[in-house]
Amino acid sequence: MESRRPARLLLVLLSWITFLLLLYHIPMPAVQSRLDSHLRDAQKFGKILEKARTDALKSRGYSAAPTRARIRNEFTARNNGMLAHEWQVNIAEALHLGLDCSLIAGTGAGKTMPFVMPLFADPDKVVIVISPLNALEVDQASRFRKMGLSAVAVNGDTYSPDIHKEIEQSKHRVIITSPDMCLQHDKFRQLLSAPAFAKQVAAFVIDEAHCISQWGDNFRPEYSQLGTLRAFVPLHVPFLFASATLPPLVLAEVRKSLHFSTDTSYHVNLGNDRPNIAWFVQHMNGAKSDLDALNFIVPPHDSEDVDIPIEQSMVFIDDINLGMEALEHVRDLLPPRMRGAVALYHSRRSKRSKRIIMEKFRAGEIKILLTTEAAGMGCDLSHIQLVVQFMVPDSLSIWMQRAGRAGRNFFIAARAVLLVQPSVFKEVKSKNPNPADEVTFQKSVEDALRTWIETEECRRDVADNYFDNGIIRISPTGTCCDNCLRKLNPDHALLGGRSMTTSSTDSPSPPSQYRREQHLKGARDLLTGWRADKCATIYRRRPWGPKALMPDEILTKIAMRAHLKSTPDLIGAGWGPTHAARHGEEVLSMLADFDAKYRRARADEIRRRAEAKKAATAQRKQLAKEQKAIERAEKLKNRAAAPKKPRKSRAKANSTPTPVLQPSASNFQPPSTPFHAHSVLPYTTPFPSFSPSLPEYFPEPSQLLHSIIHPPPTPFTPTPITPNPFVHMHGMPPIHHSRLRFETPTPNTAGTPIQTGLPPVRWEHVAPTSFYGPLPPAFIPGHPSRIPLTPLSSNTQDNSQPSGHFNFPIDYDTLFQ
């Protein structure tokens, strides 16, 4: 029952993921396809394992539960309390049952442990591990010995008669060797094929199985012959091959080479995604000559006497001579006292030199290790923070293998940087170009790697599709990749001192530098058509579509921003450097031509509208002129037809001019603050006064004062006043004003008596009434008998006023006596 539980849990988990994808209608056709494939594989291989258990139960009374428990307990005891993963126990049990197994898991996932876990179920057996590199063999032997297993590395450097004898006597349970030793070393091959020894073999394990495809043709043809090892052992001895990089086509090739049957083998695919590695692509300015592309590895510093912090880094350079030049260049970037922290590791070094360099690098004394493939696979270096590939490798699998050296410790935030030379993007011009022909580049690159480099989307998605990774992917622990980071912050400097963008977009441009409305729509349509044309011609064989070439969001930004004038500007707007470097000039030229045509069309439209407006204005003026002429002629005609009235003499008999007292500029004061209920009536400069001989002008006294303090809803309209020939005794003719105002007088000398008979005061309030008249001395500021004006009650009906009020009508003669 326990043995069936993991498979059921996996099926339930995958079923729930399928349900959620369907429930929320997630448009992920590639993910859905992989999901269906993995569901079918899980069911298929789960049935194969269950059938092997049933057959073993019938043939020898096998019980899965105690076997799996023994494997788990041994694993925990030999690994300081660490618990085994369910998939590790499944593979160990499958090997114990005689099933061929294949395993795909990322670096650091623990895929090495199942190599020896069958020995936990049957400790008298021997496991033979085929490894591609001597350094890896020694490293793995050391790790297995730490687990309490007797392990030995057998290769051209370590083989001896003593080791041969120890293997014959079964003193070693784990033998780690190479294809060369198994197939070309006569004595060792005879030992492996001896019937007595063959009976002890629990399993053959081929580590880094992708080398069968990568090296089997030319570099190391022995890898393509590993399938002949089956002739050395009985048919029931299983084989296990493992790798982090086995895309479907390579997986099929390896299965064929090792004579695997998918109907009788057990397969586990965990995918090779590394959530703690951030992926970057950096464009180089040259090829081998651009060693400055490595400058970002060393932080900038001012002092030559201070140690600077450097990440534990591994730089892959495929040319040994170029590696020596890079070694000198990187050392020159460091302070003199730190130049020993850089070393070069390659196959031509002596065994002792390799061992010393690797020990110092593992201990942290060497910070930057420049290396070829010699140190590229399998070495247990858990502290590497940065992996750099100088110029593109031959395939995406090789790049993933090398990048996988970083971040083996899951708690390290690591980076993997691919430096791409310009020749990868330079096209070879054909003498007879044909749009239907595939574009040829100066540097030939595997299609999968080129797709990974050129994509504008998440680089993890491209890798998942290519390697057929499982859909259960852990979210990145930090930065995902440069494309994802660029979408979050287009101006972010991706690599230390070498920014992938420019500062041309740091400050916002004025609105006039943006395309809007019809201008923007035309630019978007132009870019959309260009994008579709490129995907139908140049990129027609790529697995991605137009939106990968230029995402809609980036297309809109480029279409809107008319101030983008260079390729770095396009990169700053968010377009990936790969496509921007290749198509940037073409896009900018196309948009410049479009802008010029749009401006010309716009200018023509403005000129046409201006001319039409000018013509309409001239026509309107002409019509108005003609209408005025008609009206003038009609008026003259009517005037000529009307009877003429006799003219009257303007002179009056016995008329005398009315003297008017004009105020002087020296005694005139501007208006002061508005009147309110408790104001004191001041005196004012000379103003004309209404004659008291016209009492019909004045309203009832109570109504006048009440309207001053409480304006009525309906404005009071005073009786129109006409000039009166009667001249007041003060010589001031009656004049009508529409407002009533107090005016502040010019300050008088304190204590100076003010004479009676001074000029009248002008009152003002919001009510449209006015009144002019002289004031008695009692109302003049400073006078001891001045009387404040208080409002009348709204219900006052009679003309009797309280003491101290100004009563109407005013008897001027009485006031000035």
From TrEMBL:
SMART domains: DEXDc, HELICc. It catalyses: Couples ATP hydrolysis with the unwinding of duplex DNA by translocating in the 3'-5' direction. Residues 495-515, 634-670, 786-810 are annotated as: Disordered. Keywords: ATP-binding, DNA-binding, Hydrolase, Nucleotide-binding. It is an enzyme of class 5 (isomerase). Gene3D superfamilies: P-loop containing nucleotide triphosphate hydrolases (3.40.50.300). Its EC number is 5.6.2.4. One of its GO terms (cellular component) is chromosome. GO terms for biological process: double-strand break repair via homologous recombination. Residues 92-264 form the Helicase ATP-binding domain. Residues 656-670, 791-804 have a biased composition (Polar residues). Residues 642-651 have a biased composition (Basic residues). Transmembrane segments: none annotated. Belongs to the helicase family. RecQ subfamily. This is DNA 3'-5' helicase. It comes from Favolaschia claudopus. The lineage of its organism: Eukaryota, Fungi, Dikarya, Basidiomycota, Agaricomycotina.
